[in-house]
Amino acid sequence: MPPNVIILSHPVIQTKLTELRDYTADHRKFRELLNEIAGLMVYEVTRDWPVMPKPVQTPLERTTGQVLARQVTLVPVLRAGLGMSDGVLRLLPEARMGHLGVYRDEQTLEPVSYYHKLPPDVADTEVLLIDPMLATGGSGTAAVSFLKQAGVASMRFVCLVAAPEGIAALHAQHPEIPIYCAAIDRQLNEKGYILPGLGDAGDRLFGT
Ligand code: PRP
Ligand code: URA
Description:
33% of the residues lie in helices and 29% in strands. By secondary structure, it is α/β, with parallel strands linked by helices. Strands 1, 4, 5, 6, 7, 8, 10 and 12 form an eight-stranded mixed β-sheet that branches. Strand 14 (187-188) and strand 15 (194-195) form a beta hairpin. The longest helix has 19 residues, at 27-45. The mean pLDDT is 97. Residues 80, 133, 135, 192-194, 197, 200-202 line the site of uracil.
């Protein structure tokens, strides 16, 4: 297992991932599963986040509970990362959202950044960078670099399927960034698609 990579092997996540891989899942089913898996993953990804005490008045008496200590920013990589957003927001409804538009050039497989919009105080928040696929690692690496330039100190990369090549590329430049995934697949094919993978996540999600 590569260092700083966490595989979420929960049986429910694995069951839904297997359904997601199935080529007969249409965009409605794909969308539903992607959000469900993202929600289940975020429960594990946030397990060790810091909390702080908060007084609360119950119907019977005053006590002290615990709440997340830091604000959260969710940053999907467009387009396919959007397919995980609702699932994460269901658990973290207070999170702000940033957006990073990155696609990979079909010929060179190099990432092309075309849009970015982040909350002004993103640097002071816990960031979850989400994208279902980590293939060559070009898009993920570019997204992490951009967030670091924006001052983000604490971030986690959450994907569904990672290729060994993508993990190596992202960690070659950003070894301290934890990568959470549901599976590490075998390899990339000659067109940079993950094998066995689940195909083109953006196309399957949006029906394009
Ligand atoms: C997919 C995916 C990642 C990227 C991974 O996006 O959502 O962002 O490919 O590949 P990489 O690790 O080799 O960079 P895509 O480029 O297809 O853009 P789209 O979601 O807008 O279709
Ligand atoms: N992007 C995808 O959507 N799927 C892959 O297998 C690789 C990159």
